[in-house]
């Protein structure tokens, strides 16, 4: 092993707003004290209950991905397992997400964009995992 994953960093225009969006989805604490990072208007963090840390970094002239446009690719995406796709969809839409591909539902997942345009999926959990 060479390293430990410290956090996943997402570029965006509004770091604290995006951190609050993911806090509402995953739980946790926005901008919790942590000696690894200095917090300011250009950097926000989310410490999730699972231990994962997401960081949000302001980028001048941020250009969100346009899924599935290869000229502006998704760059990365996050998958979130949920027991009830319809209920989870209602919740993320109320938080500011937008639907990118409702047709994927036939396969057990749906594709969305967070408020900054990053794609993410809600994935139906199997009964074994739920």
TrEMBL record:
It holds the Pfam family Glyoxalase_6. Residues 4-125 form the VOC domain. InterPro entries: Glyas_Bleomycin-R_OHBP_Dase (IPR029068), Glyoxalase_6 (IPR041581), VOC_core (IPR037523). Coiled coil: none annotated. PANTHER family: CONSERVED PROTEIN, HYPOTHETICAL FUSION PROTEIN. This is Glyoxalase. It comes from Plantactinospora mayteni.
